[in-house]
Amino acid sequence: MSRNLPARPNLEFLKKEAKSLLDLLRQRDGTAQLADAQHTLSRDYGFASWPKLKAHVESLAAPHPFAGRWIANVAQSKRHPANLFQRAVIEFAVNGNTVDIDDEFVDESGRVVHGHSTIVADGVEHPMPNGYVVTAAWRGTTALETVATKDGEVVGRGNYTVSADGRHLTIAASDQVIVLDRV
Question: How many CB atoms lie within 10 A of CB 61?
């Protein structure tokens, strides 16, 4: 019998459920171990093993590697000659394939510019304001690739990559590489 996990499964509850199941298994077989109960419970929820069930539950609880606030490390960045900003702060919110990006730049003249965009990272073309179309796709959990077109012509490509330690985000596009540090 296969059961569905709740929308927000709790690992502690699943551990208690496995211990309760162990009591039942031991009534039938006195040599049953906790690993047997965990395996049975995992299979019941449609997972091949306890480690796979546990990893799935933990992945749901962990924030997405992109999520959060990032500040540009201007000294480490190679800014585009047409965009020599003094400061940049970018905040990412990730919900499945939807990526909301709020940014604040202080441009070369000291003017503060705010922006917001939503990218859907599903590999499908999505119309954006001003006639642009953006196609975005995840490349693992720490990389996002985007392609922007206008009137059918590619006008920009961007690769967003979070470092293995989760402390740095690099945005590589055309003639610039922006390095950001997690705030």
Answer: 10
